Amino acid sequence: MENxxxxxxxxxxxVGGPVVWILMVFSVVALTIVLLKLWQFSSLRAxxxxxxxxxxxxxxxxxxxxxxxxLDEKRPIDALVGYTMRALLAANTRADLIREEVERxxxxxxxxxxxxxxxxxxxxxxxxxxxxxGTVLGMITAFxxxxxxxxxxxxxxxxxxxxxxxxTTAVGLAVAIPVVTLHSWLERKVERIAHNMNDAVTQVFTSxxxxxxxxxxxxxxxxxx
Length: 225
What we know:
Layout: H1 2-16, H2 18-44, H3 50-61, H4 64-70, H5 76-90, H6 95-114, H7 117-149, H8 155-206, H9 208-224
């Protein structure tokens, strides 16, 4: 049974030619990237706001120390919130400079989460084009055979050449459609994380605790000057 399946796969690849081989490589690369990204998002729990919300509630009501205890700073959102709280508590940096540093860290985190999405986008774009190229090349070969046969044209030879040529387009679309879908889904996840980062950090800055710390820091800087 296994030998039969392997023979069918090899026959399929031989009929499709080098374009189908390239598309198969693309599909393996795309699958590897998707699995890697799923593992990354799962291990970081990057979209989870459970501990973030607990920390923000504590920041507003119970004080900074209790808030920091609630955070799991292995998560990207919690790490930014934790940094913001500590920076405000240190009271030795202006609020606008803290915001700039938070934005820099957020961009670095988001770039890490977007890693390998660009190759996925390229695979989604190139796969149908490669499939179309394979079809065009196959049609050229089929019509060359037809021309070489002269008046002795066998319709079955022509139809066989055409379906073999169309096979590459079908494979290209079969690779591109799921890759486009998964790429869009992963991009949307990163967008949600970016929104949650901005929302959580803004809540830290707009709380009464933050306003008190900013005013205290401003007075200390003015006194030092």
